[in-house]
Amino acid sequence: MREANANLPVPFNWPPETGGELKLVADAMRRHAISGGGYYTRSCEAWFEDKLHAKRALLTHSCTAALEMAAMLADLEPGDEVIMPSYTFVSTANAVVLRRAVPVFVDIRPDTLNLDESLLEAAVTRRTKAIFVVHYAGVCVEMDAVRDVAARHGLLVVEDAAHALMATYRGELAGTLGDLACLSFHETKNIVSGEGGALLVNRAEYVARAEVLRDKGTNRARFLQGQVDKYSWVDIGSSYVPSELVAAFLRAQLDAVEQITADRVATWNRYHKAFAGIETRGGVRRPSVPPHCCHNGHIYYLLLPTREIRDRLIKDLTKDGINAIFHYVPLHSSEAGRRHGRAGGSMAVTEDLSGRLIRLPLWYGMAELRERVVECTSRYLDRLAAAGA
Ligand SMILES: *Cc1c(COP(=O)(O)O)cnc(C)c1O
Fold first, then answer.
1. Domain chopping of the chain, boundaries
2. What is the pLDDT of residues 91-144, one digit of tens each?
3. Ligand 1 atom nearest to CA at 188
4. N or C end of the chain: smaller count of CB under 10 Å?
5. Quick one: fold of 21-254?
């Protein structure tokens, strides 16, 4: 864990350590089978199958890999369309583009910054095959409405739940809400293994093919279960399984998931309380969490009045030794996004909010360092309010 030294800069992210990782990695080494799919891979997968009721959880080397597998399972043909937000990480869209399908970007809600479910119906065409949702900042998308549109048009629902482990929607955990769900354990996420991810398969009919896709397009999983007498190349696929060393590290993190989440939520709550006054006075907006959603403290952001003020705040905080950052550059406006995707309507909210958003440092075990973030950010925001008054 990082020492809370008042003179050191406050990093934006600091990967959580639980103290149990090395013991399990050493144990994985002692088993002398450190490629993927062994004891710790199965142990982590069992954790997800138990906790998130997945029909099958498959560890992957990244959420990007899990998204690629989801796009393969969606059976996308060239020219098929997948509806998704533009305000997301590139991997959500890349997975679709790699299948020569077209990401169709829809705008986000001004309150949660999640895909605006009221725009879905209008974005559906004859070519639409799936909806990829992203639970931004660990606040769930309005899944009832998404599932309703999906059911009426026969679309697959894939959750990019990279931000959302342990977040809930109407009491149900993120990752259980779609047909397929993708998790990330990249070092910037709540639970980490350096790089890492998982595909949660919530529909039984996708399980067998998902196993093949992860295993280079071979039926090795069925071979190991004794269901076929030799294994061979049966489908497309790639090498998506992480090594046992990574899985062992992740296993230790999973044991601490409640503690890590609670600590992050405590920092989130501290920020939220500290900036309530400045929001009331106007000019700055805090995150908004619908009453039926429970977030996991993944991101704390503020929306500043203008892009210039946001950029200035990032610079000022850097001078104070606080590493605050902005977030996604909307995909529809990026070079590859313009080439491979299209906007399914106005992107006004995405364009506006992405330019005004700042993310504050938020990691497990920040302790009193978060007070420095509160103090410096408040000082700047107070100056801003005074100038505006
Ligand atoms: C981090 C992230 C990803 C990619 O995760 P990796 O594990 O780094 O591949 C995908 N989508 C979203 C929304 C993310 O935040």
1. 21-254, 257-386
2. 999 999 999 999 999 999 999 999 999 999 999 999 999 999 999 999 999 999
3. 1
4. C
5. Aspartate Aminotransferase; domain 2 (3.40.640)
